[in-house]
Design a protein that fits this description.
The protein has 158 residues and is α/β, with parallel strands linked by helices. It is built from four helices and seven strands; from the N terminus they run ββββαβαβαβα. α3 packs parallel to α4. The longest helix has 15 residues.
Length: 158
């Protein structure tokens, strides 16, 4: 990261990664008028980073430069608590997960994502919200697709 300071370019030193993402406060969304929207929609992060090393992407070099983990996950409970807050307090029913790769890290991420889905389905917002996430197609498996569909409260037969 760099900035212009009295005409001189100053480079900031990289900060150490915050390993427990649950320690980072939820975004301040006070200036977003969700209530005025016909379909209140919020961006949300469940994780940061990506372990893949694609030639076209800068995510991995960004996290490698910080000398930390390539992928960090919030706890499923914290993700769902933020979603419930946005649903109940701000009227948000559509969530756009902005994770670099929602299912990166294989079985670990599929279990994590499934736990998020299960918590939503079992909560008071199960069946009342819709969502979007992005991942690599080679990370999808029928079992995780079934569990993720429960994020919107629908059950799937495959």
């Amino acid at each position: 990261m760099a900035r212009l300071d009295d005409g001189a370019i100053r480079e900031n030193r990289l900060r150490k990664q915050i390993m427990r993402l649950d320690d980072i406060p939820w975004p301040d969304r006070g200036d977003i008028a969700y209530e005025r929207s016909e379909r209140p929609t919020a961006a949300i992060l469940g994780s940061r980073g990506c372990p893949w090393n694609c030639d076209f992407c800068s995510i991995r070099p960004f996290y490698e430069a910080q000398d930390g983990a390539l992928r960090r996950l919030r706890s499923p409970g914290d993700v769902v608590a933020e979603m419930r807050h946005l649903y109940h307090d701000r009227g948000v029913a559509l969530f756009l997960f902005q994770d670099d790769d929602f299912l990166a890290t294989g079985a670990r991420a599929r279990n994590w994502a499934g736990d998020v889905a299960d918590l939503i389905a079992d909560s008071d917002i199960g069946g009342k919200v819709a969502w979007k996430m992005s991942c690599r197609s080679d990370e999808l498996r029928p079992d995780i697709i079934r569990r993720l569909i429960t994020l919107s409260g629908r059950r799937c037969r495959m």
